[in-house]
Amino acid sequence: MGNAQRTPVVPLEAGAGPENPPCPACGEPLFGWLSAQPGLGGPVSRCESCGLGVVGGPGDPEEALRALGGAGDRRGPRVANRASFAASLGSAGWAGLEPGACYLFTSESVRRLIARRDQVLKSSRWAPTAGLAATWQTLLNSVTFGHNVALAALGRAKAAPAEHAWQRRIDALASVVLAIPAGLIALPIELAGGLCGRGAVISLRFELL
After folding, report:
1. pLDDT tens digits along 30-84
2. Which of 25, 56, 39, 50 has its CA nearest to residue 96?
């Protein structure tokens, strides 16, 4: 036992390189997470340190701040949480992967980003109603051809509809038939996520230094 060799700990910086550009929020390398999805501008990378997700290119801090919003506003934005249970369980089916999305935020990535404009994250609170809806849609995404069909029909998200008309008809039917079962499953998942600080949607509040 005493002679057993320990596996050396490799720092994240060791993975830096052209294929793993620096995270716009914290500077650690980005690693591949998902291949290109319908409606997104390319494959999705994620930071193992702060959790930020970046769609397509390497990303830019100022661009990420513009996407986040909330400059000069104490009441920050409400964002889909990439550190949520819903994102972990849903993966490519996560409702937060809306068409046109470029950055996928976590509380920690937001904290590091807004420090660049002399703000601090005063609070990050679970938005239970919006979070439950996002987790519900994430579950429905696992059985539909398109993405975010149900929430888009309710005017609460952007959809990536299926390519063929027959697929879209099946998606509409599945969203109706499975709405209640998906809700019953989503409720305990989102409740657990919210209580653990991993709710699907979070409301942010900023404060100037």
Report:
1. 999 999 988 899 999 999 999 999 999 899 999 999 999 877 666 779 999 999 9
2. 39
Measured CA to CA, the distance from residue 161 to residue 145 in angstroms comes to 8
Q: In the chain, where are the structural domains located?
A: 20-208
Q: What is the pTM of this model?
A: 0.89
Can you spell out the DSSP letters for 56-109? SS---HHHHHHHH--TT-SEEEEEE-TTSHHHHHHGGG-TT--TT--EE--HHH
Enumerate the β-bridge partners of residue 147: 160
| SS3 call for 168 | helix
| Amino acid (1-letter code) at residue 186 | A
CA distances 104 to 65, 130, 198, 206, Å, are 12, 16, 14, 18
Q: Is the pLDDT of residue 17 over 70?
A: no
pLDDT recorded at residue 10 = 47
**CA–CA separation, 122 and 124 (whole Å):** 7
**66, 49 Cβ separation under 8 angstroms:** no
